[in-house]
Specification:
By secondary structure, the chain is of the alpha+beta class. The protein has five helices and seven strands; from the N terminus they run αββαβαββββαα.
């Protein structure tokens, strides 16, 4: 025969209190998991104009811009200048050889190399190429050469980061090159 014991009211109250406390902890823990965590601050590139740091050569000076690490994820220095009549009028900047011929990477050092092939890009109505470069005295891949043309005229951009690879910041650089600030300057500079 089975014997059934009656529980005392104090024991039942303790058991009920423990069960309610455990349920409460479960609800709090579940809420902590379900409550969305604050999103990480979106990085929104903010470019400011800087002084052109290079000596004047046959192409004159250009425009220099900087994006601080807080705004771009890492510090970026960008140098732009036009080279009027210096682009292949038939094909434009359509291959790595033309990009290297018109680019301004030599402003940083005469000796440089490209670890990987470049790729096609577009800036407003213009087409061109982008390619990372290794420059002596700088981190590998920390320089990005971009060139885009309108007929025989080319605009070259050189983006430099303190540590490579510069390819990480290419989307931010291309977005800036496609901004009203640069597109209006390009139109005026190219006489359009």
């Amino acid at each position: 025969m089975m014997r059934i014991e009656a529980r005392r009211p104090e024991t039942m109250n303790k058991t009920l209190a423990t069960a309610i406390a455990l349920c409460g902890l479960g609800v709090v823990a579940g809420a902590a998991v379900l409550v969305p965590k604050p999103a990480a601050r979106d990085v929104v590139p903010a470019w400011s104009e800087a002084k052109w740091p290079f000596p004047i050569d046959q192409w004159g000076t250009g425009r220099a811009f900087q994006c601080k690490a807080d705004d771009c994820g890492l510090e970026v220095n960008l140098y732009l200048r036009p080279k009027i009549g210096f682009c292949n009028c038939t094909t434009g900047v359509s291959d790595d050889e033309e990009l290297e011929r018109v680019a301004d990477v030599a402003l940083l050092d005469e000796k440089f190399s490209a670890p990987v092939p470049g790729h096609a890009i577009a800036v407003a109505w213009m087409k061109g190429r982008s390619r990372p470069y290794d420059v002596p005295g700088r981190s590998a891949g920390s320089t990005l050469a971009i060139a885009f043309n309108d007929r025989c005229d080319v605009i070259v951009a050189t983006a430099v980061v303190p540590t490579g690879p510069a390819e990480k910041i290419e989307p931010a650089v291309l977005a800036f090159l496609n901004s009203d600030t640069v597109v209006r300057w390009a139109q005026k500079t190219l006489g359009l």
